[in-house]
Amino acid sequence: MALFGCMAFLFAFSGCGHGYAALPVDQKFIALTFDDGPSQLYTPKVLEILKEHDIKATFFVIGRQAQALPEIVRNVKAAGHEIENHSWNHLFLLSALSPRKIEKEICTTQDIVFNITGEYPAFFRPPFGWTSDQLTISCQRLSLPVIDGSIQPGDTAKPGKANIVSIILRSAEPGAIIILHDGGGFRFYKNRSETLEALPEVIQGLKDRGYIFVTIKELVDYHIKSAQSPLIHKATIN
Ligand SMILES: [Zn+2]
Hints:
By secondary structure, the chain is of the alpha/beta class. It has helices at 7-12, 43-52, 63-68, 70-78, 99-117, 133-141, 161-171, 193-208, 216-226, and strands at residues 29-37, 58-61, 82-85, 176-181, 212-214. Strand 1 (29-37), helix 2 (43-52) and strand 2 form a beta-alpha-beta unit.
C-alpha cells in the first residue's frame, strides 16, 4: 500500500534507535493512551469516563479487533480521540519477524483503520513494547514513528486500583505518555475493571496537579514546534 504521509515526523525523529517513551515539553502536557482494544465491553466504558472528564486520549488498536468491532472504532473517532496502530495480531515476537511479515502486520492495520475512519494512523506501538533494529527500519520505511510510554502501571496484571493510581500520579511529568489498556491480558487478567475504577482518580489527580491532557499527535506536534531539548529515549518497556 501507499506510504501514509508522515515524512515531517520521520525527519524529526531521525536518529531514533527504537521507540520514544516521553517527549519533554515546557508545558504540563500529558498523554493518556489505551492499548489492545477495541473491546466490546470496556472501550465504551472508557469513552464514557473520558467524556465525563472532557479529555481526549489516544487508542492504539489491534487491527483484527478493529475489523471485528468497527462501530466501536467509529465511536472512538467520533468522540474526538486519536486512533493509532498496535499491529494486526499483537504477536509476541513481532519484532523478530521478517520485514515482510512485520510490514504486513502494520499495513493491514493501517488499511482497516482507514477503511473504518477515513484516516490512517500516524504512529505505531509494537506489541509488548518490544522493538528491534528491523522493526525500527520497517517503521521508518512506512513513515510511522514508534511510540512507547513512560508510565506503565501494569494494569493488565491487575495490581489493584490504588497501585494504578499512585504509580501514575507519582510518575507524572511534563511530556509523559501513560499506557493503560481497554483490552488485552491473559485468562483472568482480561478483566479491565481495575483500569476503569482507577481512571477517574487518575484523570482528576492529574488535573489537580495542573496537567493538560493531549493526544500523541498533539504532544509530538508541540514537541517539534517548541524545539525542546533532545528527545528522551527509553529503549525498554514492559
Ligand atoms: Zn499491547
